[in-house]
Amino acid sequence: MRKVNVLWTILYLIFLAVFNLIFYMVGGTDHPASVWISYFFIHFAYLMLVCTPFLVKKGREAAFFGFPLSSISAGYFLVEFIAGLIFILVAPEGFKVTLIVQVLIAAVYAVALISNMIANEYTGAATERHQAELQYVKESSMRLKAVMNGLGRGKAAKKVERAYDLIHSSPVKTDRQVADLEYAVFEELGRLESVAAQNDEETVSESADKLVKLANERNRRLKLLQ
């Protein structure tokens, strides 16, 4: 991984090396303020292009969120490079027009980038919330299914199946006010898994009944909150 980072760093430095070599070899160091303003903004645009991936929130959706941000920064760099190159070649004596144009381009870029980052934050938060909502039904169902597979066809197995059907069909959407019940379901699930491993059918039946009671109460509270 470190080798890859080094290679990417070298790749990024190639543009800076080539651009600065041509800039100083062809034009020297004696330039009007308008040229130095364009020189600065070209480097700033390139720096933002390089740093944009670090602005993306790490996670499963990093590639999805990172693409539009990288596209915005790449577009800004392209526009800035062309505009800056024109100002460098024309080299106007006054710096006001150059500065105004460069600031306007940077401002449009900043608005686009920040707006996209805000949208990504909302989308990311909604995705995380959805994943948290799925956890209760998904994890509980999966664990109950595993317990069912280890039981026979007796009374205890039917009660576990009833608990599975109830939780599997429960509302995915959750709320803070039912978090205590969901936690109690997970705790009881742990107890059920333990007694099922010991083939204690009577205790398995009791635990499955308690799960049904907790799951029903959780669903009832959710309905009241709607």
Structure described in brief:
The longest helix is centred in the middle third of the chain and has 55 residues, at 96-150.
Architecture overview:
- The protein has 226 residues and is an all-alpha fold.
- The protein has seven helices and no strands.
- The chain has helices spanning 2-27, 33-51, 62-90, 96-150, 155-168, 179-197, 201-225.
- The longest helix is centred in the middle third of the chain and has 55 residues, at 96-150.
- The chain is elongated.
- The two termini are 49 Å apart.
- Mean pLDDT is 82; it is low at 59-66.
Beta-strand residue percentage: under 5%
Kindly name the structural category: mainly alpha
Q: If you average the pLDDT, what whole number results?
A: 82
Separation of termini? 49 Å
How many helices? 7
Helix content: over 70%
Multimerization state = single chain
Can you count the beta strands?
A: 0
The rough form would be described as elongated
Radius of gyration based on Cα positions: 30 Å
Q: What can be said about the biggest beta sheet?
A: none
Features:
elongated; mainly alpha; 7 helices; 226 residues
What layout of secondary structure does this protein have?
Layout: H1 2-27, H2 33-51, H3 62-90, H4 96-150, H5 155-168, H6 179-197, H7 201-225
Helix pairs in contact: 2-3, 2-4, 3-4, 4-5, 4-6, 5-7, 6-7
